[in-house]
Amino acid sequence: MANSLRKKTPPPPDPEQLNPDKEAEVNVAEVVKDERTTKIFGSVSLLFGIFLFIAFTSYLFTWQDDQDKVHQFGVRIFATADVKVTNLLGVLGAYAAHQFMFNGFGIAAYLFCTFFFVLGINLLFGKKIFNLSRNIKYVLVGLLVISMAMAFVTPNTAFSWGGAVGELVNSWFIKWIGQVGTGALLFLASFSYFIWRFNPQFHWPEFNWIKPAEKQETFVPEPEAEPVKMDWDEAGKPLQEP
Fold first, then answer.
1. CA-only gyration radius of the chain, Å
2. d(CA 240, CA 127)
3. For residue 100, what is the DSSP state?
4. What is the spatial distance between Cα 219 and Cα 174, in angstroms, rounded to a whole number?
5. Is 91:77 a contact under the CB 8 Å cutoff?
6. How many Cα neighbours within 13 Å face the side chain of 15?
7. Which of 28, 39, 181, 210 could in theory staple to 177 by disulfide, Cβ–Cβ 3.0 to 4.6 A?
8. Which residues contact 22 (CB under 8 A, 6 or more apart)?
9. What is the spatial distance between Cα 89 and Cα 108, in angstroms, rounded to a whole number?
10. 212-218 contacts: CB < 8 A, separation 24 or more?
């Protein structure tokens, strides 16, 4: 009788129900595909492109004041309190511009700004406004051709217009094919890059002064016939002259 009156033991509670504040699992793939994530990355890319453009432009005017400091301290310049730079974007701008322009590709480093601009616009608006793959090709080829050409035409200037990469590649080609051969190769490469990038239309000029002037026929108008005066009879018929 006692066994029949014994109550059944309830099942243990579910531990997931006891912890309502449990964090939801984060799916990385869904976060990456989220529209808000692409817009954030697009904004960051645009901001970075603008940052590089300002840093590069400021470096063109302040490199003489900041270059020796970046050379002396290197990465430690960020942790050195008494170092003052004149770049508009501070120590980070001076260091980034020095690496991209002096140790990199010189004035051709501006092509990086175009890449981050194109990438940022496409991500921010969520559609293919600019051709990213084509821009990457232009940037890669332009970095080599422009930096090498600038190093060739400005060999003895204080500012490194071609950067370390341009000067290095330029010295290799001068050693291999000489000054004249390198100049001819750079002219061909620069002209080909210009055509590939902008696709200009060329038209052969017409030299009219070479051809003899065509003789133009003068138009002489024919004399108009004088109207003939005719007499009419009473019946409305013309009278014949005697």
1. 40
2. 92
3. I
4. 68
5. yes
6. 0
7. 181
8. 16
9. 20
10. none
